[in-house]
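#struct-pred
JK: can someone run the complex with zinc ion? inputs below
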Amino acid sequence: MAVKTNGKLHRLRQVLAEVTDLTRAARVLEWDQETYMPPGGVPGRAEQLSTLLKLSHVRLTSDEVGRLLDDLEDELADAPFDSDEASIVRVTRRDYDQERKLPSELVAEAAHAGSVARPVWEKARHDDDFSLFAPYLEKNVELNRRIADALGYKERPYDALLDRSEPGMTTRQLALIFAELKQAIVPLVSDIARHADAVDDSVLYRGFDPDLQLSYALNVVRRLGYDLERGRQDLSTHPFSTGIDPGDVRITTRVSRDFFNECLFGSIHESGHGMYSQGMGAGIDRTPLWDGASPGVHESQSRLWENVVGRSLPFWRHFFPSLQAVFPEPLRGVDHEAFYRAVNKAHPSFIRVEADEVTYNMHVLLRFELETELLEGTLKVKDVPEAWSARFKSYLGLDVPNDREGALQDIHWSSVSFGIFPGYTIGNLVSAQLMEKIRADIPDLDAQIETGQFASLLSWLRRHVHIHGRKFTPDELLERATGKPLTAAPWIAYVQKKFGALYGLKQPVRN
Ligand code: ZN
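RT: done, structure tokens with the ligand placed:
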């Protein structure tokens, strides 16, 4: 419903439209940088991006915006919480306060530290020499701490950083969720390891023509509901999606002749992000609401399509015959069931980005624990490799052979970005929690998927998640969509059931 205000809301929307246009222009430049820009463009592009983002920051944090927010908070005090008007003011206030709390020198120092640390991290990883990177990580830990102090927190410094990416989420809440995950997953991982032979994935390495993979993947994501009139797919080293505006939401993928999963599942993953952006409401365009509720909620959309749908048996009942028609040679003698099993092979491995559904969250837990301890000073940077190995052994049962496959593997710690990792696990949990409710609302979902019908699933997600953009915090969104805040139980039940069946494990006794 429309809410009556004087011209102030109109004025605020004008300013926010400009802020949005600036960040959207930056997104086009970033997309270009990751896809087609020649290497010589790197230094110039860094300047262009920094100028655009600075202008948008200045515009958002102006005194005028502060005054407009003060006035509109009074005027809209009785407006419904979920109205576009009240939500624009509420979410802009959150962004405005956070941006204003960070002194611009601190923001600049953090950006600078990141750009200095990045090449050192690359060299340290290449040489497998943690001591090279240690002083830079120390600096980044210190900057993360100063940012947490500037933003403020009630209980733990990590709360401040977490709240920036996952609004409303606390370290305490997350620690409880991870403890529950650990209790369920560690024994499941070792059960699977004992039955590793039950799943054979050699078919995935038989050689698949890259061009055919790309066109097949594009056709699949189109069938799922990714709109190519408002989207496109290109190649990049690290696949990503970018929502530029409602009419232009792009995805990228990568392709390997020797490993089937990369291209198709990469494309499905990014199309999940893409469909989220394509489904955001028209009334929130060119405002801060036109974005994902959080990185974690964004990730829930990609994981839902990639794993819960794309790695399901009904999905492969539908798609396998057409895949086999495109790749008769490598798929000779294979059936949909064998292929379903292959794409779901689970085994503990060292690299987070290559981890399967079961083990993935343990990689995130490890990083969450180390980040909170570094931030609070209970862990010293020099002791990180040892702490990494000890926990890796206890969670996934493996001895980490070197730091390249351990503490040096992720790019994240080369910049000042603590608080980002938990979003990956939140995404997995949210996807399962939504799916539990979707299955209750659409009882014949599997039958629909098996016949290649995805429209009712997509329209459920549109209605309950996509259309709202950033209107609600992750917990608010989940409460509205599923009746509960974030909980680990649906995801735990999902992996125990799916992987218990795949590996022929005894189902855990539930009490
Ligand atoms: Zn993603």
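RT: quick notes.
Residues 269, 273, 299, 302 surround zinc ion (CB under 6 Å).
Residues 171-503 form a domain with the Neurolysin; domain 3 fold (CATH 1.10.1370.30).
JK: thanks, will look after standup
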